[in-house]
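User: Hi! I'm working on a homework problem where we have to compare a predicted structure to a textbook description. Could you give me the structure for the chain below?
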Amino acid sequence: MYRCCSRLVTGWLALLLLASCSSVARPDDFAPTKKVNEFVAALEARNPSAVIALLEPGDWRREIGPELRIYFRYMAALQLRNKDVSIVENDGGLAIVRLKGDLAYTLSESNVQGEQPIDLIIEVVNIRGTWYLRSFQLPTPET
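Assistant: Happy to help. Predicted structure tokens:
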């Protein structure tokens, strides 16, 4: 009886040790998905400053600012419905995040409303412990 319990305890300890080692090596998926969710919230709030702050520092961040501010003036409302944010890859320094949903919008001047599906692949990069959105692309069609 003692021998059986001893093996059982040893087996459980080995499994717990293995599980704890694998979880230590796994990159944090929460931070990159959180950045994408913050991006969606900034879009829905039509807050160009918040969107720009989420972008990787660099020239294109400064260049996109005026265009983004103009774009938000044309939008009376933005909402991402049926949102799904998922990690495609993550090595701890670069995460590939997929954002899917239905973008509902209302145009400011004409009050025209519409909705269209979106499916984006977003690169999120970790720079000195802070995650930033690096690029956006449409996913490659599956063949």
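For your comparison, note the following. The beta strands are 75-90, 94-107, 113-127, 130-137. Residues 8-25 have pLDDT under 50 and may be disordered. Good luck with the assignment!
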